[in-house]
Amino acid sequence: MIFTQYSKAKDFSDDVLETLNHHEIQNNLLFINIIDGPNKTMVTVKDDEGNLLLTAIRTLPFPMVMYETDNKRNDEAVDFFASSLLEHNIDVDFIMTEKELAKSFCEKYGKLTGKNYNNNMSLVLYILEKVNELELVKGNFRKLDKNDLFYLPYWYADFEPACKLGEYDLSHGIEEANKAVENGNAYLWADDYPVSIAATVRRTSNCIFIGQVYTPPNLRGKGYSTACVSYLSQKLFDDGFKYCALYADCANPYSNRVYQKIGYKKIFWYDQYKLFKE
Predict the structure, then answer these.
(1) What's the pTM?
(2) Fewest CB atoms within 10 A around its CB: which of 48, 141, 223, 254?
(3) What is the mean pLDDT of residues 69-74?
(4) What are phi and psi of 66, to 5 degrees?
């Protein structure tokens, strides 16, 4: 087998893009990370004939994302991948990939390095082809604007701990709120006053992803996020996208119910693991 580490995104893209496109919606996180920049790891495993078996990319501080070609389990390739990372002094402490591959990698890499590992989060990828007809809570839908900045930083600051992505950080919330307004990719549901937000976060050739869905704790369970995501999804279809997609935490029954009610279907399951030494 052949292990390759890439220093240029173009070289990496030339080797992996055709294979990743076999499952482009699943591989959306790999696509978005194929850019030159610091704190970047781009690696592949090929067989002796040059056929791509495994692709991995990481941009710190985010997890390493991996893909086995056409989702065909290959323990031999994972063994070789884990040992090659060690040989090339590439330390891995955070991963996100398909459930079986994630567990297999952690077992093999942990055995080689003496690292323990914990499941940090389990995620499901949803895809939508048509918005269900629903009776939605009263309110109106619009794009966020600068007049929303008096409250938005607090919502964006709380989004991180609410989704188990980090700590409450108001300075980060201010930054993210300003970015959302400037980029014009975030939308609001209002019922006399603002109650829920959602945004577009990335896209593939025929699919656009929704993320940053947030409703304040005291307003949850009233149907506001259902209305916001439903309207945003329909807008994106009207804009010409064939599919909408999003991720949900498997441990959050509320968000999963919301997305399924709108018409989103589960298509893929991921696990995040943290790897560490005691």
Answers:
(1) 0.91
(2) 48
(3) 95
(4) -125, 155
